[in-house]
Amino acid sequence: MFTQARWEEPLIIQLSHPRIDQPQARNSESDLPEKVRRRNPPSLPEVTEIEVIRHYTRLSQQNFGVDLGIYPLGSCTMKYNPKLCDLIASSSKMQEIHPYQDQKTIQGILQIMYETSSFLANIVGVEKITLQPSAGAHGEYTGVMLMRAYHADRNDSTRDEIIVPDSAHGTNPASAAMAGFKVVQVPSRDGCVDKDALKSVVGPRTAGLMITNPNTLGIFEREILEIAAIVHDAGGLLYYDGANLNAILGKAKPGDMGFDIVHINLHKTFGTPHGGGGPGAGPVGVRKHLIDFLPVPTVEFDGTKYYLDYDRPKTIGKTRAFYGSAAVVLRAYVYILLHGKEGLETLSEIAVLNSNYLARKLTGIRGFTLPFANHVPRKHEFVISASELVKDTGITALQVGKRLMDFGIHPPTVYFPMIVEEAMMTEPTETVSKEELDNMARAVQQISDECYANSSDLKTSPHSTTATRIDEARANRPKTMQLTWKMISKQSNSV
Ligand SMILES: *Cc1c(COP(=O)(O)O)cnc(C)c1O
């Protein structure tokens, strides 16, 4: 069994104790006018270097991450990324440049941005890329704004609806709604977009359709060309949610499937660790007819020098400061060069192989089934259902997930997509070994045995993590959130 560090780590402010060797504040010698000077010293923790190191190291031991074990969180691509990408991104050359520098002095990073854009454009089959958006959802928002600009430019202002399938990632309808569109949901049939249902919702109000392929069930929408034609014939555009590209690298291009706009999560597929609290990058690629609307500036090359082009009259404007998360783009550049075309293709083959291997193993275990089992193979991820387990034993997908933590395995994404009951959405990724997959299957087998043996362990697990059962509802209630150490101190003083 896996065991995390289990101690109550105080706040660093609670570790504070005044010291005589503290450098004295020289406020009195300051040239600052009297009225702007502090009256009291700031409340900073007074701790020694070793105390700081131990505090944060202890905190890090209470966490789970990709550097510790398998993290098969479906739809999120939590994979190990080469440390080389981080190493290069943290070089002083990168750390010390500033976006306000004269463009003559940042030719290197502009070249990297330009080349990364063309690599990505090639990978997804589009003509041009903007590197500006900071994340997937931000890329979606940018993409939806591009749709609006495109329709407005054609004097077509009736298009105020965006269609999303019922299996869509939550950010898709959220981004469309944020941009002011009405969201229309299209049901799926047998795990894929229902073409007839789609036909019945498209029309003169359709701005576009947002989907991902393979979809969130890990199923490749084979009828994608027909789907694209239905939307295009109605005058709408096709948006590809390319957050997770590790099923199709070198195998299929969204541009070839008929998509007009694609976003890519560099922090899922291309070398930036995902889930570390950012920054990320969600570049957006477009086909020819949308190039004019891209955010400014774009990174261009005139044959001798790289430059930023702000002179784009039809642009939607800026979607964030400067030109994008440069260090994340650099990691992607390193990652792509490191793998090469063949390497990227092999990577997606392994991702898909791992996913199918694990899907086969898990669905051989009592209590778990693979809905829409006729769709095989799955791509980089799959969704199993624990509904039989619930029926037989009362143990839910959530409880299985919690118990998995005792084995040093991060739970899969549970209860998403919503079209599968007791869903466990699992993405092992290409960076896990066969041994790890077998180990996970053994853990799920043991959990299934425990469920059918009516073990009480399931209801109270995890037992080996720093925190056990977290009150997820309470954690989301603004009134009970404690966001600063002062709030926490106040509460602990009052008890
Ligand atoms: C992660 C993800 C997103 C959103 O990306 P963020 O960078 O978290 O905003 C969108 N769609 C899918 C399918 C995803 O997996």
Structure report:
The structure is a single chain. The chain is an alpha/beta fold and 495 residues long. The protein has a domain at 84-335: Aspartate Aminotransferase, domain 2. 36% of the residues lie in helices and 11% in strands. It contains 16 helices and 14 strands. The chain has helices at residues 49-61, 83-89, 92-95, 107-124, 136-153, 171-178, 195-201, 224-233, 266-269, 326-363, 387-393, 397-404, 434-452, 457-460, 472-475, 485-494; strands at residues 128-130, 161-165, 182-186, 188-189, 192-193, 206-211, 237-242, 261-264, 284-286, 298-301, 306-309, 382-385, 413-414, 423-426. A hairpin with a 2-residue loop joins strand 4 and strand 5. Helix 2 packs antiparallel against helix 10 (326-363) and helix 4 packs parallel to helix 10 (326-363). Pyridoxal-5'-phosphate binds next to helix 5.
CATH superfamily of the domain at 84-335: Type I PLP-dependent aspartate aminotransferase-like (Major domain)
For the largest sheet, list the strands in their spatial order: 1-9-8-7-6-2-3
Choose one word for the global shape. Answer: globular
How large is the share of residues in beta strands?
Answer: 5-15%
Ligand roster: pyridoxal-5'-phosphate
The CATH architecture of the domain at 84-335 can be given as: 3-Layer(aba) Sandwich
Q: How does the helix and strand content classify structurally?
A: alpha/beta
**CATH fold topology of the domain at 84-335:** Aspartate Aminotransferase, domain 2
Mean pLDDT: 93
Task: Compute the separation of the termini in Å.
Answer: 36 Å
Which segments are poorly predicted (pLDDT under 50) over 5 or more consecutive residues?
none
Largest sheet at a glance?
Answer: 7 strands, mixed
